[in-house]
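Before surveying the methods themselves, let us examine one representative protein, pairing a chain with its fold in token form.
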Amino acid sequence: MADTKREIERKYEATDGTRLPGLGRVAGVGKVVARGRSELDAVYWDTADLRLAADSLTLRRRTGGSDAGWHAKFPVAVGVRDEIHEPLSDTPPPPLAALLRSRVRHAELAPVVRLLSSRDVQHLLAEDGTLLAEVSVDTVLAERLAGEGTGTTATWTEIEVELADDGDPAFLDAVEKRLRKAGVLPATSSSKLARALAETGPGDPPTRPREPRTAGDHVLAYVREQIRAIVALDPAVRRDLPDSVHRMRVATRRLRSAFTTYRTVLDREATGPLGAELKWLAAELGVDRDQEVLDDRLGARIGALPAPLVLGPVENRLGAWSAARRTGSRRRIADVLDGERYLALLDALDALIADPPLRPAASRKAEKVLPKAVLKDYDRLAARIGHALDREAGPERDTAMHEARKAAKRARYAGEAARPALGKPAARFARRMKAVQTVLGDHQDSVVAREALRTLGVQAHAAGETAFTWGLLYGREEAAADARERELPEVWVRASDPVLRADLKP
């Protein structure tokens, strides 16, 4: 992966009468060092319909300064972005193009804006010479290169304060206090590109989205949220960021559940094929995630054992077994995200939102439609819980509890989706369903762990090692599963509180 830098900065307006105040009086600053002026030439690329800019993403090719090359920037939080750097080339480097594929897909990337910046830089140093922040005053000339407004230019001056690597964000507060005292105010645009597009474009006023009122409004808002999550998490999955695969997988499951739960709102003839494709995507993402969860569980179990009970090369065997099962999984996920099937799914989801297949119930009040759908999922869960509790302990009950777990997850997602419309009753319902899901999920994790422990024990025995520790862990997992089975009835009684259900009824 290319070089990545976490950029934490703040931007400020600079009018004709604005002067940068002396920053040597900012708390913690021991010295202000002038670093001179540099001339920067940056060309920003995007699709013709500005898909990257719409999601606050930037792709630029810049010359001049100390970091010439290609840069892709991804928002993390307000004033925080991850900047990924690649060397100069004539066209966008493939690694950066891949990170943007969920937005760009088959559209063409081309230059849309050119920014010429004359940058005057100062470094704020601590008493020991440590860099605290870089302050720059940029005089900018922007030119629109494509689309409506081509050839239009705009000029402005702005001040940027960028925190040094591993710096304390609180230092930026101290700098801002000094700037505000001198009359320097925060910029109204989040980036140079955003300002350039606003000042060189047609200037259409932004449309304010209508507040959700009907059942269709609320369901479509939830569906859009999950689609946005899938698209936004694509680059994070490619970068192998922590928890990104899990979060993307959850978004696919929530979306698929919404299609099923709210089938009186969205036509199942249209959403059914999409649900099947979402199930495929979740399964592909799960190859790596399921192994990660299992590794964490077994590693924790081994770590909790007293040293005298860990006999043989237990940790080494677990590591080798896990590595063998993970071989190629990261490459496989990348291949999935680069594949036509995945891109076709994203296009189909966009088409669904553009022309939603609404059924008659979609036009009714959310308070009348959504509770019925949520309670139907609850009844489905109740039936599966009853079936699981009626089974004798063993494989048959394990299977029944796994099916109940999937129903609990769907009921929880149904409550979460309905919360904006139904408020606290839906939130309470979702929390209770999550508690049931947690018990059932831990039970299923124990079932999977026992299968893995048996395999590891057999392998250890075949290699001439003692299988004692693997057998011990198997027994502990069996006890953990028994505890969850005893806990389930009590958790279910709380979750099936009649008052809770009554609050949801229309």
